[in-house]
Each structure stands twice: as C-alpha cells, then as structure tokens.
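Saturday, quiet lab. Running sequence design on the structure tokens for the scaffold JK sent over.
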C-alpha cells in the first residue's frame, strides 16, 4: 500500500466555499474514489490555504488514471478548478505531485 501526500494551494478568497463543498461530496464521487482504490483519503488546510492531501492506495498513478476515466471526476474537477492557485489551467488532480516520504512510524 502506498501512502501518498501532496500539496495544492486554495485561493484565499475561496477557502470557506471550498470547505463547504467538501462537507457534502457528491455520493457518486465518493463511490468512484473508492472503486478506484483511494483509501483513507484526507485533506488538511492551513489558514493561508495550503492544502495537504493524504491517500493510501495500492498504486497512486493507477488510482489517478482510474479516476480520470470517470465522468464524475471530470465534472468535479471542472467544478473545483476555480478554487486553486497555480494549476496552470489544468485540473487539481493533474497537479497532485507526491511528496517524498521522509519518515513513517509503523
């Protein structure tokens, strides 16, 4: 199981709205994530909008690819794109670069 962390930046003026949308994730999005192998997926955000994501999955690249094949992910990513800084006109999931794991306590 891969443990993957990544960071993105939410626009300061969109932070509260971003959090609200994550209180009621679309059920079909939750189902797609589960089916694509996303486990223990969590998002954390600083007061400045720095977003840290964490997911456990057998294969992160494959999990991203499986989500990219779904209509619900395309709709969600289109909907959420305006909330992020510096994603270069792409979807946020195209900017999820895994961080180097430095330590893990088993």
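Result came back. Writing it out in full:
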């Amino acid at each position: 199981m891969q443990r993957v962390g990544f960071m993105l930046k939410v626009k300061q003026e969109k932070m509260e709205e971003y959090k609200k949308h994550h209180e009621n994730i679309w059920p079909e999005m939750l189902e797609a994530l589960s089916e694509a192998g996303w486990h223990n997926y969590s998002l954390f955000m600083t007061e400045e909008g720095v977003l840290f994501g964490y997911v456990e999955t057998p294969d992160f690249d494959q999990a991203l690819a499986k989500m990219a094949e779904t209509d619900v992910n395309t709709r969600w990513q289109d909907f959420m794109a305006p909330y992020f800084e510096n994603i270069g006109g792409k979807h946020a999931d195209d900017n999820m670069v895994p961080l180097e794991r430095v330590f893990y306590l088993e």
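Notes for JK: The first helix runs from residue 15 to 23. The radius of gyration is 14 Å. Ask whether to fix the surface positions before the next round.
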